[in-house]
Amino acid sequence: MRKILISLLAFALLGMGCTPKTVISQSYDFSQMNRIGIMGFSSPYSGLSGVENLFAKYLIESGFKVVERAQLEQVLKEHNISVSGYLSPETTRKIGQILGVDVLLIGEVTSYTPTRTGVTMVATRRTEAQPVYAQNVMKLPDGSYAAYTQNVGTQYTHSTDVRPSQYTINAQVGIIAKLVDVETAEIVWIGSLSDESSSALDAADYIARSLVKSFTKELAKLQEKK
């Protein structure tokens, strides 16, 4: 049995931010990882589902062979294998044997806030300027008097216009994903990321792309060392 020298679950990986927080096993032999089985991501939020499909898309783009959720769950159902909760080594080993996968991608939506709108009152200060005139009288050369109007300054009037204004608060999504070896049930890679966007799907897509990209970079660095 391979020994995984790092305890990945002990890391505090969750939190807001645009940089993925990931840990990869330094001792695991990733060269034997040919096929990845993708499990359905758990989520206590009914408004966001199917996140695992986004990971499948980017893993395939990165060159990995993927057994996607629907196929995996159908086969497990046919063999009466339950994958809810903790995955024991026996269960993961059965999954690996039946589907011919080497690792399982398991994930969870850890936080989710949908896009929402609000209304706030916006005050606009206005200033109006008006000239001020005065009537004066001047004496003419013939001794008579004539009235005339003269600008003696400017009068300023201040007012405040208050009107409602609508604003949008972006959706926020947090996801944690991990790769589990089917032989030992050991976690060989784990990562998490939170993001916000105009839609929850866009945020989840960015997270999936970022985590898969981070994993491929870590994997490439690990292979360079060996």
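(the above was protein one; protein two follows)
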Amino acid sequence: MNIFSIKDLEQLSGIKAHTIRIWEQRYSFINPSRTGTNIRYYSNEELKTILNISLLNRYGYKVSRIDKMSVEEISEKLLKLTHIEAQKERVVNELIQHMIDLKIEDFEKTLDEYILSKGFEKTITEIVFLVLEKVGLLWQTGHVNPAQEHLVSNIIRQKIIVGIEKATSLSYENRTVLMFLPEGETHELSLLFVHYLLKIRGIKGIYLGANIPLKDVLYVVEAMKPTYLYCHLTSIQNNFKLEKFFAQISGNLLESKLIISGKIVQGYKNTVPDNVSLKNSFSEVLEHFKKI
């Protein structure tokens, strides 16, 4: 069983810790345990309860009314939510709950159902990346086992690879993007998804992979002369410095240009080389590639 802090509940549900404490005093649906030093902690079931109640509360149900509902009634009300954003949030919560409970078959089934209903691209952009963002918050605090993240990440990875294989390829001359992650970066789901997006948009992608030494990247650049290089930085080693990376790679790109996205570049204010461009989102990345 995982244990969660009140800060975890706040980050995952969007309900302020102060409000959660008030709910504990007024209602019966949540009853945290306490450490020897009187610090609250919460179980898997209490996290799931907060996720469900916060969603119903956000879309019109009073907490006092929810408190009187059975588990079955709450599940029924969640399924009847018609607002599009509520439906998305319900699916995200379900996937997080399946991951926490290690119900991997249920995780994959929920994912497949959404893909069938909304399509592959919307599933990744609207659901999967939000799940990974929230799971990442738990992983950083040490309140989720890395094995739980690895299990669901591998399922998602398999889905994206299948999507790439099934996508119609419309390659055009002089439209080539070399995709890689530098040494120390192993989180390749975003990179794989961009590979898929490029392929369906008729841009040829060369997928080099994750954790690639710079000398190997430059070898491929010299041999294949791609129009662009692209990497997405998610959780790279602490000693990674963007300025050093720019200095090492920008002078060796020949005619190619480097595009970088990911949290590490968001809000970056320092000067970047002329052949390097930083993007804050996938939409910015794709908009840029459309122009090549």
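Reviewer note on protein two: The domain at 167-290 is CATH 3.40.50.280 (Rossmann fold).
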